């Protein structure tokens, strides 16, 4: 007897469940990698700030708060901690004397570069165990997922770096 394919109505639910499970496994993988890391640990909230500033360099606290869906005082405290670690700096805005711009420092950029390299290495080890057709399907699915997130306005569109344009 043939297996019943999932109904069109249940496919999004099953796909969301599978994605959630993969995300949870990735969190475990990242935590395991953190134990081996020699870099300064940051909280998940602080990491979201670093990612946001990496994508949107020079934004102010209000804009960062909007991106994170957080209140200004919370965002300010996060930035205080990251500034104390030497990962973020606040500079006067050239446009408005009343505003400060947020920038990643070279230490903040290095932290993200090292973290991403660690995560890339861990992912490559897992992906290498997949068949070529599974890797191709994963790449296509992840591209569609990212496009849907950006299209829904759930995340800001990532600015293409020169290296991204060259590799496209």
Automatic annotation (TrEMBL):
Domain HTH marR-type: start-end pairs: 15-147
- Which InterPro entries does its entry note? HTH_MarR-typ, MarR/SlyA-like, Tscrpt_reg_MarR-type_CS, WH-like_DNA-bd_sf, WH_DNA-bd_sf
The keyword Transcription appears for this protein: yes
Query: What keywords sit in the KW lines?
Result: DNA-binding, Transcription, Transcription regulation
Q: Record's SMART domains? A: HTH_MARR (SM00347)
Q: What Pfam families does the record point to?
A: MarR (PF01047)
**Protein's recorded name:** MarR family transcriptional regulator
Give the species this sequence originates from: Streptomyces maoxianensis
